[in-house]
Amino acid sequence: MQELNKIDKEELSKELKKRHQNNPFATLSSFPNPKLLKDNEKASLRIKKAIENKEKILLVGDYDVDGVSSSAIMLDFFSQIPYPLICKIPDRFKHGYGLSPKLLEELDEDVKLVITVDNGINAFESARILKEKNIDLIITDHHNPEELLPQAIAIINPKQKDCTFPFKDICGAVVAWYFCSCIKSALGLDINMAKYLDILALASIADVMPMLGFNYTLVKAGLKHMGQSNKEAFKIISQKKEIKEFGYEDIGFFLAPLINSAGRLAHASLSLDFLNAKTPSLAKKNFELLSALNEKRKELQMQVLEEARAQVNEDDFILVLHGTSWHEGVLGIVAAKICEEFKRPCIILSVKEQKAKGSARSNGDFALYDLLFLSKQYLTSFGGHANAAGLALEFKNIEPFKKSLNENLAKMNKSLYIEKEIFAKLELKDIDFELYDIIKSFEPYGLQNPKPIFLLENIKAYNYSLLGKEKNHLKILLEINGNFLEALYFNFKIEDTQNLDILKNNIDIVFTLSLNTFRNQSKINLLISRLEASKDPNLL
To answer: pTM for this one?
Structure first.
């Protein structure tokens, strides 16, 4: 383990506060003006014209949490104008991603205006088709654009080179929210835009936005709003999971996967109906359907994960793994898990009829999108962020694509995986509710603002056991002055029981703090990410 200094609670609070002391967007009132988003005002005036002329408007969303959240905001906003808005979220398996030509085959003839949310920045062919049909297109997106842009009357994307919006890394739902804010001004409406803070927090966490600056303030306010939300969806989540105050981990580990499950295995319209449910009975019904899909997702995920692991060649800089008809809905999750396990970027592809589609994940010192761009000659389509991307290619090109990626990564000479930095050392006696409350007070954590990770050295396991169907989760009991702390290590690698011999002597553990609440009783848990034998196992 690395050499670290110990830290007391006062120092911890000061260090966490430093992360946000120069935030220019520290309050909601300091948020940038909607007009700073390029084309936002122009697009809003086109909406005003469409309403005045009673034109038919089609909204095209996406099937992930961000896309569904963006669609939910737009639909609710237009219902308050009030003006009818037709919403179509693509079927992952039938239409593919976003505003695709396949989706346009189902376009109503009398549609005069198409709006995209969380997609469209690379929809060149679909934009051309719409232009030929004399249908106007407004693109709202946050994914990286290419040098050339699709033909559209307005493109709202903070990552455009000539966009003056001062915070670039916002999710698609925030872009849609800002669009609605501009429409509100154009139409002179009295609509409280703060009512969407809960959905914006959900989307920002689920889409792994940097949790500093603008996003930090937005999500902090959104999580607070979520606990007091009038939305039936958040009420049922709070009731079922016994959540009084929502935290970013409640979103990242439970709510986001739950909402994503519909788009992965069925159709994301179910998740949209859940977020916009107007009655407790409808919210409960959709929650139960999503829960069943999420359990099925876990089963499929485990199957693909095991098959993908068997293909891994640890000599590769980037892992490109493929299988016949692997379920497309779980490829991104499997890529993330393989990336974390083998400490290098990973692409998981499902092959069907000589075509491959898949997802890429990375935690390296380079932008994944840029790496894919260098080998784009092998791809039929791709898009995404620095750490996540989607792609498609011909089966025959998988091997040359893989070779090209590895060669380019070798030339870059970049770190393949950035290990999470340990914040400080602690002693067992330091771990209490006061420490937990300090850490909790600086939520939300996330990308570029990690939750503090601590190190405990030379501790003795009082007892330990294996949990789960596969017996792949380790629970360690630690004793402090007659009281016990539970430390949990999920997906602990155990090839044989001899690996548990490490627990017979003193150990060092790297962990984060968590709170486990059951039947109104709370206790602190340690969530282990690394475990090693102490340098001096006999030191007590």
So the answer is: 0.88
